[in-house]
Write a sequence for this structure.
């Protein structure tokens, strides 16, 4: 049997275990709503044009408005901070070696690739990742981001993938037909806020989907404000010439307009009875409360506080901190959605390498969670040290890669050991630097002495006393 057929068979068995068919379990009814069931029938032949229009509008917003671009860029950069690391508490060297090679081949060690994937998720609402095998079909060679609006999930009216060998299709809008189909193992889709997670045909929604109408209103009001300022702000003058004929008025207008061109002040001279009266510009230009209200309502529908984009008027610091905490909370959820897709690809790589991913203790996560500052992470790691937690847990809590740090500790131990080949049993020589540091350090926790009534943590080296 050809190797891709074996992979298809293996993932078919995995899909049947994760998403069992209705006749093999006690599940009854249909997962989707009546609307989604009708949509599934239509999408057997055509993609979702509503989703296509939504994504195109979000992309246009990103190109035209710097606020939208900054929301997308800053969110994507915050999501990928720290890069991807492998959670490998058992220190399985073969697992670590597979991960390092997999990450390098798929360019997941490059920040720009991670940012691109994150932007795809928040702009398009779904992140389809195609996992490409090499020519020998024995390892995952590429991780390709596909445009979400072209992907159709081939599900039945019950919301489940009917054939794992043909689970997805890519539609070409120019040719009006499908140009490729994908097996369940070839493609994985991360979904942002789907209508129903259990309905496989329910794709995600873009991060700013609900703000599109408000964004159009804000743009319209800002354009109107600029037009009003250009047309009504400058001061004007009204010229009155009593008894002047049409020809006299035309000549006077031509003369005064030619004199006003490029001049700051103008003098008007007339041999007839007349006057020049100044008309002030619009005195209500500073009344922009309606625009501020629309801007506030638009930012209320976005995850990012507007203060992070420079709008800091009448905003208390405590309110900003609470808004940032909610924003970071949502970013952590997005991180979990992204890492779940990367785990799908690494699971495939382990199967190709002859390793059972279910029998190993592992996971993929980002190096830094956004909900905590580096100081807070370090504080929590030191508290874990005080209660005797494992070194792996402490390093992971501090935002470090435990496997990489353990390897560096071993390299330092070999480099600085004065007796690398000595068999003499000397006190402390056979102990690792890590154990010696654990014996010498003391951690002190003082409740209520940190910021916002948090505990202050102090660590001291017992050898220095």
């Amino acid at each position: 049997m050809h190797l891709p057929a074996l992979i298809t068979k293996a993932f078919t068995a995995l899909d049947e275990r994760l998403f069992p068919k209705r006749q093999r379990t006690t599940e009854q009814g249909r997962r989707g709503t009546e609307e989604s069931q009708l949509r599934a029938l239509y999408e057997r032949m055509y993609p979702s044009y509503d989703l296509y229009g939504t994504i195109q509008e979000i992309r246009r917003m990103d190109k035209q408005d710097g606020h939208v671009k900054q929301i997308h860029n800053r969110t994507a950069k915050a999501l990928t901070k720290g890069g991807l690391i492998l959670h490998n508490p058992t220190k399985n060297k073969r697992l670590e070696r597979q991960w390092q090679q997999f990450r390098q081949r798929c360019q997941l060690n490059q920040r720009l690739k991670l940012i691109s994937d994150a932007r795809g998720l928040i702009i398009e609402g779904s992140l389809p990742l195609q996992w490409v095998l090499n020519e020998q079909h024995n390892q995952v060679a590429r991780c390709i981001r596909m445009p979400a609006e072209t992907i159709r999930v081939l599900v039945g009216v019950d919301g489940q993938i009917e054939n794992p060998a043909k689970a997805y299709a890519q539609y070409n809008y120019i040719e009006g037909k499908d140009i490729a189909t994908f097996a369940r193992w070839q493609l994985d889709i991360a979904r942002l806020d789907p209508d129903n997670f259990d309905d496989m045909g329910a794709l995600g929604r873009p991060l700013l989907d609900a703000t599109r109408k408000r964004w159009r209103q804000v743009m319209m009001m800002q354009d109107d404000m600029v037009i009003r300022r250009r047309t009504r702000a400058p001061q004007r003058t009204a010229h009155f010439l009593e008894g002047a004929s049409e020809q006299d008025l035309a000549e006077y207008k031509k003369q005064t307009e030619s004199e006003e061109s490029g001049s700051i002040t103008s003098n008007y001279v007339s041999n007839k009875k007349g006057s020049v009266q100044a008309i002030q510009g619009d005195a209500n230009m500073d009344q922009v409360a309606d625009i501020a209200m629309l801007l506030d309502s638009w930012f209320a529908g976005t995850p990012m506080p507007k203060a992070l984009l420079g709008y800091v008027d009448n905003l208390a610091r405590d309110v900003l901190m609470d808004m940032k905490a909610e924003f970071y909370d949502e970013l952590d959820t997005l991180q979990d959605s992204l890492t779940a897709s990367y785990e799908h690809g690494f699971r495939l790589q382990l199967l190709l390498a002859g390793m059972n991913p279910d029998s190993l203790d592992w996971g993929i996560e980002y190096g830094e969670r956004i909900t905590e500052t580096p100081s807070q992470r370090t504080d929590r790691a030191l508290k874990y040290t005080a209660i005797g937690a494992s070194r792996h847990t402490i390093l992971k809590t501090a935002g470090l890669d435990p496997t990489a740090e353990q390897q560096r500790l071993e390299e330092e131990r070999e480099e600085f050991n004065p007796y690398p080949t000595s068999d003499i049993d000397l006190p402390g020589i056979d102990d690792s630097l890590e154990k010696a540091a654990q014996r010498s350090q003391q951690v002190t926790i003082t409740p209520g002495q940190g910021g916002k009534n948090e505990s202050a943590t102090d660590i001291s080296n017992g050898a220095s006393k």
In short: Residues 422-430, 461-465 have pLDDT under 50 and may be disordered. The two ends are 69 Å apart (CA to CA). The first strand starts at residue 84 and ends at 87. Residues 372-417+431-465 form one domain.
